[in-house]
């Protein structure tokens, strides 16, 4: 669904006119469960300085090589419940993408948030640390290429987690995505992490993950957008048949010192093929740095960083960020392509419910003898409660 600029403006003004609220709205206590309601609305705008591909092309495009897109990115509605006892549950739906989000129930042993079993649809341990973090607090408008291309996010399954504030170990078994005609293929995943330093404003985190899944249908397609989530075209595209299973290994690191955060992740994949087809290997990584100009720092929970509210709600929290990202999906006869990008961004968290983001992205893509190197200006307006 594409929105005109006037429709988008009206929607954003309506959001800005809404009364301020905190992270969630308490509804009622039903059957011993404290029920609350959360939401996230994001609207994106992209301006392309295109190279060989017109990424903004649509029915109204004049194909002049410098196009734009504006569209609602997310419209997430989430019900949460605490209780009875040590049970927690969540029911989430993205009205924009017409898909279920987290839909699961969790039982915490001894009321320990780091020791639990979980059944339903949830983000898999084989996803990146970036994916496991809260979407509303993404450092950049587009997540990294390994998160979007190699990571396995939400699937239906069961998982067991044990740990405390400084370490954790998670194992899961999963099947398809809950929404019809989405991702499928049975598999399992594990993730372990350790924070040898975990103090207020001083965090060091290390983690590893492994995921193995059936490619289901004996076909696998790995492709990457040019660091702009809403574009339909992917220049980097590895499309394979005669595939059996795919495995993914991830390594992650995080360092927080006062208002500075340094984060990096690496992920590789190995695809087993049959019928004389050569196995495939691909990989990628990103390194990003963020500076809270207004002095705030980050927290740490469940092996991921957490972003708090501005110290001065009226002034808001201002951030500057820089990221280098790369992915390689070419191996032997499979020429999926390579992509390198640099993203510079500024974020403004205003009061308790609003976030505004502006990114400049420089992308270099190669596939065999072909190249495509767009420059993109991206903006996001976000309202959450």
Automatic annotation (TrEMBL):
Keyword Transmembrane helix among record annotations: no
Q: Which UniProt keywords apply?
A: Signal
Recorded hits in Pfam families, A to Z, give: Porin_O_P
Q: Which residues form the signal peptide?
A: 1-23
The protein here is known as: Phosphate-selective porin OprO/OprP
């Amino acid at each position: 669904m594409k929105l005109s600029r006037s429709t988008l403006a009206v929607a954003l003004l309506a959001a800005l006119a809404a009364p301020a609220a905190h992270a969630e709205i308490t509804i009622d206590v039903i059957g011993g469960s404290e029920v609350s309601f959360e939401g996230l609305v994001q609207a994106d705008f992209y301006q392309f300085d295109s190279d060989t591909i017109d990424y903004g092309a649509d029915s109204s495009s004049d194909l002049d090589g410098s196009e734009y897109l504006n569209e609602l990115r997310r419209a997430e509605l989430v019900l949460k419940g605490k209780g009875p006892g040590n049970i927690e549950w969540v029911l989430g739906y993205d009205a924009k993408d017409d898909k279920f989000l987290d839909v699961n129930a969790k039982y915490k042993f001894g009321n320990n948030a780091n020791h639990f079993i979980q059944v339903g649809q949830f983000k898999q341990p084989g996803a990146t640390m970036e994916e496991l973090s809260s979407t509303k607090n993404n450092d950049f408008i587009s997540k990294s290429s390994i998160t979007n291309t190699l990571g396995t996010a939400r699937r239906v399954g069961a998982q067991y987690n044990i740990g405390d504030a400084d370490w954790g170990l998670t194992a899961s078994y999963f099947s398809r995505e809950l929404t019809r005609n989405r991702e499928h293929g049975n598999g399992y995943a594990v993730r372990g992490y350790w924070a040898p330093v975990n103090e207020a404003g001083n965090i060091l985190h290390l983690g590893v993950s492994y995921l193995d899944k059936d490619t289901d249908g004996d076909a696998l397609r790995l492709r990457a957008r040019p660091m702009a989530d809403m574009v339909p075209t992917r220049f980097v595209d590895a499309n394979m048949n005669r595939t059996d299973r795919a495995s993914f290994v991830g390594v992650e690191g995080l360092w927080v010192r006062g208002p500075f955060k340094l984060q990096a992740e690496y992920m590789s994949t190995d695809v087993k093929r049959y019928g004389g087809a050569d196995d495939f290997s691909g990989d990628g990584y990103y390194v990003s740095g963020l500076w809270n100009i207004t002095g705030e720092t980050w927290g740490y929970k469940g092996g991921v960083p957490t972003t708090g509210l501005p110290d001065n709600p009226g002034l808001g929290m201002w951030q500057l960020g820089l990221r280098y990202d790369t992915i390689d999906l070419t191996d032997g006869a499979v020429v999926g392509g390579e992509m390198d990008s640099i993203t510079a961004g500024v974020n403004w968290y205003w009061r308790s419910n609003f976030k505004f983001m502006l990114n400049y992205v420089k992308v270099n893509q190669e596939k065999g003898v072909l190249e495509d190197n767009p420059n993109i200006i991206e903006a996001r307006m976000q309202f959450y409660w």
